[in-house]
Amino acid sequence: MNRIKEVLEEKGVKQTWLAEQLGKSYNMVNGYVQNRQQPRLEILFEIAKILGVNPKDLIQDKNDKHTTKS
């Protein structure tokens, strides 16, 4: 599971903007945001860089409903 949706909301960023920044289709990014599919690790790191967050902030432990910040 990822927290991309939550981070986008916190940053006030739209999925369309993120899709443009990544060079990916809206449908691909929407799949990540809705957790229908998970981005490859390289893409996850690129998303974190674009959003200015630690990659760990985009990951949710499947056993914990809280973020995995350390």
Explain this structure.
Helices cover 50% and strands 0% of the residues. The protein is mainly α and 70 residues long. It has one domain: 434 Repressor (Amino-terminal Domain) (Orthogonal Bundle), CATH 1.10.260.
Which helices and strands, and how do they pair?
Blueprint: H1 4-11, H2 15-22, H3 26-33, H4 41-51
Quick rundown:
The protein has 70 residues and is mainly α. The chain has helices at residues 4-11, 15-22, 26-33, 41-51.
CATH architecture: Orthogonal Bundle
Instruction: Let me know the CATH homologous superfamily.
Output: lambda repressor-like DNA-binding domains
Distance separating the two termini: 17 Å
- Count of helical stretches: 4
Quote the CATH topology: 434 Repressor (Amino-terminal Domain)
Beta-strand fraction estimate: under 5%
Integer average pLDDT: 91
Task: Based on Cα principal axes, name the global outline.
Answer: globular
Compute the gyration radius: what is it? 11 Å
Q: Structurally, how many domains make up the residues?
A: 1
* CATH class category label: Mainly Alpha
Helix content: 40-55%
Ranges where pLDDT stays below 50 over 5 or more residues in a row are: none
Task: Describe the sheet with the most strands.
Answer: none
Order of helices and strands: HHHH
Number of strands: 0
What structural class do you assign from the helix and strand content? mainly alpha
